[in-house]
Prior knowledge:
The protein is α+β, with helices and mostly antiparallel strands. It has one domain (3-131): Nuclear Transport Factor 2, Chain: A (Roll). Helices cover 27% and strands 25% of the residues. The strands form two sheets. A three-stranded antiparallel sheet has the order 3-4-5, covered by helices on one side. Strands 1-2 form a two-stranded antiparallel sheet. The termini are far apart.
Amino acid sequence: MTEDNKKSFLGTGWSFPPRFLDSEQGIEMSRDDDDIAESLHILLSTVPGERLMNPEYGCDLQSQVFQNINNSTKVIIEDLIATAILYFEPRIRLIGVNVDDAGQMSGVVNVSITYEVKGVNSRRNMVYPFYLAEGTDL
């Protein structure tokens, strides 16, 4: 069995954000590890209740936007992420979540997520920037 066949169960979906190709090719698709990374980004960016047909889906990180960043807040953020991944991303096994608050004075906290893709034992890392201030001119 080739490596591609082993990973085929990981899925294929629309790329995020959606990207359209020419009129003959249609929508750009995301596969395997890229699909999982994009799925995690969507999960962490979605507020529970935002999806009408699946109101439980999401990670309530927005509840922590106005909190002081201390050890308690870090643990809450880590738990919110771990719980969301446990319930909504069955293709991976979470190894760890780490909140890095070094950039908090500039309005961003980086969340490092280490996970293993089930079935292929492929270890991956992802950094999700959690912006503490609204706007695009941070």
